[in-house]
Predict the structure of S100 calcium binding protein A9.
Amino acid sequence: MEDQMSQMESSIETIINIFHQYSVRLGHPDTLIQKEFKQLVQKELPNFLK
């Protein structure tokens, strides 16, 4: 029987997956350069900037 992930585990996995969508574009694949971070925030967190 496969254990189902908790809501928090699933949410963290989603955050990590989105992070990696941006981090692999330029530089080291496990870090964000300023340009990647800016793109992530603008696209994924538009209400955060309001």
Observations:
- Helices lie at 7-23, 34-44.
- The chain has a mean pLDDT of 91.
- The CA atoms of residues 9 and 42 lie 24 Å apart.
